[in-house]
Amino acid sequence: MAKILVNSSGPLHGEVAISGAKNSVLPLLAATLLTEETCVIEDTPDLVDVAVMKKMLTNYGAQIDDSEQGIIKVSVPEIVSCEGDAELVQEMRASVFTMGPLLARAGKVIMPMPGGCTIGKRPIDLHLKGFRALGADVVEDLENERVIVTAGENGLNGDVIYLDFPSVGATENILMAATLANGTTIIENAAKEPEIIDLANLLNKMGARIKYAGTDMIRIEGVDRLTGCIHAVIPDRIETGTFMLAAAITRGDILVKNALPGHVRPIIAKLKECNVGVDVTPEGIYVDARDRELIATDIKTLPYPGFPTDIQSPFMAFLTTVKGRSIVRETVFENRFMHVVELNRMGADISTENREAIVPGGKKLKGAKVRATDLRAGAAMVLAGLVATGTTEVSEIHHIERGYEHFVNKFKGLGADIMKIEHD
Ligand code: EPZ
Predict the structure, then answer these.
(1) What is the DSSP-derived secondary structure letter of residue 234?
(2) Mutate to test the pocket of ligand 1, among 22, 23, 129, 330 (most ligand atoms within 8 A of CB)
(3) CA 167–ligand 1 middle distance (angstroms)
(4) Most buried pick, 100, 123, 163, 304, via CB within 10 A?
(5) pLDDT at position 118
(6) pLDDT (tens digit, 9 = 90+) per residue, 60-92?
(7) According to the model, what pLDDT value does residue 95 have?
(8) Which of 167, 198, 355, 373 to mutate to test the pocket of ligand 1 (most atoms within 8 A of CB)?
C-alpha cells in the first residue's frame, strides 16, 4: 500500500508552479462529447482523475491523442455508447459530468448512480431536475442502481431552471445540455465558481451562445451544432491555496507562480487576518510567514465567492499551529470533518459539534500514522506532517494522486523532507 512519509521540515522556501485545475479539466473534457470535431485542451494536469475521464470518453467513442505532455486532443466522430461504465463512475464521481453532453449529443444517457464518498451523500437530484426541466424523461432504476435519461423526439427544450443549491456539477451538466437545446435556458441560483466560467468560455469557443456565466443567472440560447476549439485550462485555485498554506504552516516563504489571485481572494483575506504576509506580484502570489506573530481566525465555507470547502481541511491543519482558538464551520458538505480524527492523532485536540469544529490552536503536533480521508484532507495531513515532530506516515494516498499533480516533488522542491513509498 503506497504511503507518503513526511518529516519535520522547517520553514519551506522557494517557488512552485501551479498546474491546470482538476475541477475544470474534467468538465472541459466531458464537453468535447458535444461535437464531432477535434477539441484541443491545453495545460492539462497529469492526474489519475484525468486518466479515468479519458477512459470514460473512449468508451463513448472518443479518439484521444495525449502524446504531447499537457495537451489532450479529443474528437468524437460518433457516440458509440451512451452508457457510463459502473467501475469508472465509482472511481470518479465527476463521471456524471458526461450526462449533460451525452443527452444533448445523442439524446440518451444511462449512468450508474455515483456512490457517496467520505464527505457526503453527494446526490444528483439537482442534475436530474435540470434534465427534466429540459424535457427529458428521467427514470431512476433503483434496482440496477442507475439512472436512464432520454430526450424527447425533437431533442431538449430550453426552460427556466432554479437550483435549490448552487451546485457546481449540476450547473455544469445543465449548461452543457442546454447548449444544443431548442430555445433559451435560464439557470437561476447557478454556481459562480471560476470553473463554471472556464467551461462557458470553452463552450462559447465551440459556438455555444452562453451569457452571464459567473453570475447566479446564466442564459443559454440553444444552437444546432458545436464545432471544435482550442482551450487552455485555468490554474488550480485549490492547489494554489494548498501551497500558500504550506508557507503559512511552516512559517516559511513561497512564491506561488501561475496562480490567479482573483480566484483565491478568500484565502488571501483569511491568511492576512492571521497576520501572514501575502503579496500579489507580477511573478505570482508571494506568501511570507517568517518571523511573524500569527493570529487565529475563524473560517466558514460557502459556495464561491465564499471560502472554498476544498481548502477547509488544509486551513484547519494550519490553524492547529496558530496560538488562539478558531472555529471552522463547514456549510457545503455534511460530513467533511473526517480529517479531525487524523489531526487529533497528532495532538491537535480539536472537538466537533455538527458542522462546527473548535480548534484550540497553539499545538506542537506529533508525527503519527494517519489516513488521507479525502483528496484535500490528504493534503492537510501532509501539511501537518511538515511541522510535526518526528515522522508522519500518510496512507490511502490514492486520494491525493487523484487531484494534485507531482505533489511530492513539488514539496521536495520547496525543501520538504518528504517521500513516497510504494510498499510497506
Ligand atoms: C464540485 O463537486 C467539486 N468537484 C468538489 O471538489 C467541490 O468540493 C464542490 O464542487 C463544491 O465546490 C468537481 O468539480 C469535480 P456540488 P460537486 O454539486 O459538483 C449538494 C475536490 O476535492 N448537492 O456543488 O459534486 C451536495 O450534496 C472535490 O476537488 C445536492 O444536494 O459539488 C453538496 O452538499 C470535492 N444535489 C453540495 O450540494 C445535487 O444534485 C455541493 O455540491 C448536487 C449537489
Answers:
(1) P
(2) 23
(3) 6
(4) 100
(5) 78
(6) 999 999 999 999 999 999 999 999 999 999 999
(7) 94
(8) 167
Report the mean per-residue pLDDT for the chain. 97
Alpha helices, DSSP H, located in 188-264: 194-205, 237-250
Q: Which atom of ligand 1 is nearest to the CA of 308?
A: 12
Residue nearest to atom 9 of ligand 1 (CA): 168
Q: What is the model's pLDDT at position 121?
A: 82
- Residue ranges making up the domain that contains 249: 3-19+235-421
Are 294 and 405 in a shared domain?
yes
Please indicate, yes or no, whether residues 207 and 277 belong to a single structural domain of this protein.
no
pLDDT value of position 424: 65
Cell of 299: 473560517
> Can you say whether residue 189 is alpha, beta or left, with left for phi > 0 and alpha for psi between -120 and 50 degrees?
left
Residues facing residue 301 across a β-bridge? 307
Q: Where do we find the cell 457510463?
A: 84
Could you tell me if 386 and 300 lie in one domain? yes
> How confident is residue 1, by pLDDT bands cut at 50, 70 and 90?
confident
| Rounded Cα–Cα distance for residues 244 and 261 (Å) | 11
The 10s digit of each residue's pLDDT in 221-280 is: 999 999 999 999 999 999 999 999 999 999 999 999 999 999 999 999 999 999 999 999
pLDDT digits over 98-123, tens only?
A: 999 999 999 999 999 986 677 888 89
Q: Which atom of ligand 1 is nearest to the CA of 334?
A: 34
Answer yes or no: is pLDDT of 180 > 80: yes
Is residue 232 within 8 Å of residue 45, measured between CB atoms?
no
Confidence class of residue 305 from pLDDT cuts 50, 70 and 90? very high
How far is the CA of 278 from the CAs of 245, 247, 268, in angstroms? 11, 10, 7
Q: How far is the CA of 253 from the centre of ligand 1 (A)?
A: 32
CA of 110 to the centre of ligand 1 (A): 21
Cell numbers 458538505 correspond to 333
CB atoms under 10 Å from CB of 180, counted, come to 24
Whether residue 298 sits in one domain with residue 269: yes
Residue 423 burial (CB < 10 Å; 0-12/13-18/19+)? exposed
Check whether residue 227 and residue 301 sit in a common domain. no
User: Atom 10 in ligand 1: which residue has the minimum CA distance?
Assistant: 168
Q: Reply yes or no on whether 117 is catalytic.
A: yes
Q: Record the cell numbers describing residue 172, joined without a space.
A: 455544469
